[in-house]
Amino acid sequence: MSPRIRKLTGTVLLLVWIIVYSLAAMVIGSRLLAGANLFWQTVVYLITGFAWLPLAMWIVSWMHR
Q: For 64, phi and psi rounded to 5 degrees?
C-alpha cells in the first residue's frame, strides 16, 4: 500500500473511531453518571478521556510505517 493511500485510510479510520467512541462514551456516561457525585464524574471523565488513545496511537503508527 502506498504511503498516500495508507495516510488517507488511517485518517478516515481515525475520524470514524473518534465519532463512534465519543457517541458510545456519551451514552454510557449519561447512564452511569445520572445522579453521581463529583468524584465519580471526574473518575469516569478521566477514564473515558484517555481510553480512546491506544487505538488512535496504533492507527497513527500504522500510518507512518
A: -95, 10
CA–CA distance, 25 with 27 (Å, rounded to integer): 6
Type of residue found at 22: S
Tens digits of per-residue pLDDT, 24-61? Answer: 999 988 898 888 899 999 999 999 999 999 999 999 99
If 0-12 CB within 10 Å is exposed, 13-18 middle and 19+ buried, where does residue 13 land?
middle
Burial 19-50 (b: 16+ CB within 10 A, else e): eeeeeebeeebeeeeeeeeeeeeeebeeebee
**Mean pLDDT across 6-25:** 96
Entry pTM? 0.82
User: For residue 50, what is its C-alpha cell?
Assistant: 484517555
